[in-house]
Amino acid sequence: MQTPVENETAPLLQARALAFARNEEPIFGPLDFALHAGDVVLIEGDNGSGKTTLLKVLSGLLQPTSGEVLLHDAPLTLAKLSHQVALLAHLLGLKLELSALENLRFAIGLGGLRSGITPQLALASVGLEGYEDQPLRMLSAGQRKRVALARLLLVPVALWLLDEPYANLDREGIELVNRLLDNHARRGGAALITSHGAYAFTSGTPRRIALKPGIGNRGSAIAEQVSP
Amino acid sequence: MRPGTTAAACIALLRRDFVLTWRRRGDALNPLLFAVMVVSLFPFALGPEAETLARIAAGTIFVAVLLAMLLSLDALFRSDLEDGSLEQLVLSPHPLALLIAAKVLVHWLTTALPLIAIAPLLAQLLHLPANVLPVLLAALALATPLLSLIGAVCVALTVGMRRSGMLLTLLVLPLIVPALIFGAGACNAAQAGFAFIAPLLWLGAWLALALVLAPLAAAAALKISLT
Amino acid sequence: MNPLVLYFHKFGSPPYFYRVAGLWLPWLYALALVTGTVGLYGGLVMAPADYQQGDSFRIIYVHVPCAWMSLFAYLFMAANGFIALVWRIKLSETLAMAAAPVGAAFTFVTLVTGSLWGKPTWGTWWTWDARLTSELVLLFLYFGVIGLYHAIEDTRQAARAAAFLALIGVVNLPIVHYSVVWWNTLHQSQTVSFTGQSKITASMLWPLLVLAFATHAYFFASLLARARVALLSLESGKEWVRGLLTSEPAHG
């Protein structure tokens, strides 16, 4: 690893020699990195470079072809998932027939409730005050994204894995995401986000991992760590 | 109950699925309509004599109910798959088997229970002798959860396939044939005046086995299909 | 490391398997052909006619070995499926999926020859007794496994899903086997027994056993041939496949 470790505490998430191939085609790897509390890491890459796959491997949903993922030094597999990981995927995991409040209440039932916050407060802080009871079907894509972000606020989870969190959001929404990431990092959480775009993370400079197709055979993806 | 515990998660899932079914209650009527239509076709095909119809009544109702449930099985995981909720369920640290069992319970309550409720109506349409009706209801009450459970395993294997309709039927039918044989067999035995308790006990035994094993198998199948 | 484990490891490697299977293949086919001919001659020509059924019983020499193979093939498929699911060995996935069509074919032949035999002896082409019904269910299970395997795009995932289905269907095997014991069936009960006396005379029995051996040899030959082809297409991007195609002219 090239980046110097800032604090001496144990890493929240660690990837060791992580590689993934589908149907014999290499998608990414081998990757080595560690995430500590307070870290926000941005994974950049063009469409198809394997960012979403990497996130799925890190969440435990996919088994890596080689290497391992360690959460708090314990291996993370589908058999041993943790309360500590939340994935915000491209498909938000929200039911369109339910209202924002109902969706959030379900998420709380599944994942628990962080102390000091309620669903209404969470919705207000993502700018959806007044939209609590409308079925999600009637909200725009950007508003649905905000409901998903509100869900992140409610469930007490240390590690956020966000796939394209800036997608479908306007400038205010992008600032909202950055604010949320900031607060989360300051509270001792960590986040890994993917983006193919040019949206800059405004406060602090996150570590960046770039996934780009390599010059290896058949466009296999190799990864390099870029530290700003 | 504290949110975030497994019990709370199951209750939250049950509640969510009930609300969702209620909001799409038009769709929930489809299996009922299908069963009524299928049963109504037989008098047209076989002629309206009560004796002919009475002989095939129990078996026909059984097949109609099973086919109606088969139609609705695909919807078990489909909407959750399409909006990403299924992924969230798989990722949650609660035992996936329990979550699936909760979904299957809602599916059975909202699909099979109405079918069992109209079974007396279907029995009337086919002139089923009155003494066989309780046996039919008991057999349906045992066979339909079996179908929901075994169906859940097969749906889990084919989840995500766009045109899985025929394949799902092909997978479920061989596994559900014993339930049909014993369920309809119990009714036919009762109709002929023989003892009918043995097939019902067999169904009960299989149901007990399926209640334990099917959610586990469905969870394993889902993990295979989604990863 | 334990030499047996090492050998197992080596055997699981596709290029090694491809080569070794290719060496065995002609011998297996030859064995099947020779023993098959001997068995068929013994059964169709040498064995005495049955006192009750006359010569129509001779279809037993095709029907019964195929029936035995239909069950064996499923067991083989399920066993390899289990290995594939638990240990994720790619070769087991290939072998399990290659066994499915062969087993389905044996099941189909069993049903057809049974039907042909049923007409003169029972007076009907088909009856829904326990043995026939469970064998038909077995055929549907095979179709389900094959259908599921071909419906999923990712081959390894497809193999795992189909293997899982095969394992669920294993429960049908004892049902087929014991159906003539547990139920009152039109189909005759067990005549050949591994433990104790068989209820069939020796001159009729030996061709049956020879043909059982022949069908096993044929099953493995067919299996290996299919597995080799499947491996070629699965590993088509790899070096060893390209090496095969460029270095040697078509052989075997």
Q: What shape does the CA trace of chain C take?
A: globular
**Strand percent estimate of chain C:** under 5%
Characterize the quaternary organization of these chains.
heterotrimer
Taken in chain order, the helices and strands of chain C follow as: HHHHHHHHH
Please, what is the average pLDDT of chain C? 87
Series of secondary-structure elements of chain A, N-terminal to C-terminal:
EEEHEEEHHHEHEEE
| Biggest sheet: strand arrangement of chain A | 6-7-8-3-9-10
Largest β-sheet summary of chain C = none
Question: Which structural category fits the helices and strands of chain A?
Answer: alpha/beta
Low-confidence residue ranges of chain C: none
The proportion of residues forming helix of chain C, as a percent range, comes to: over 70%
Describe this protein's structure.
- The complex is a heterotrimer of chains A (228), B (227) and C (252).
- By secondary structure, chain A is an alpha/beta fold.
- Helix content of chain A is 25%, strand content 27%.
- In chain A, the strands form 2 sheets. In chain A, strands 6-7-8-3-9-10 form a 6-stranded mixed beta sheet, sandwiched between helices. In chain A, strands 2-1-4-5 form a 4-stranded antiparallel beta sheet, covered by helices on one side.
- The longest helix of chain A has 16 residues.
- In chain A, 43% of the residues are buried.
- The N terminus of chain A is likely disordered.
- Helices cover 85% and strands 0% of the residues of chain B.
- Helix content of chain C is 77%, strand content 0%.
- Chain C is globular.
- The two termini of chain C are 34 Å apart.
- The interface between A and B is medium-sized, with 31 and 30 residues.
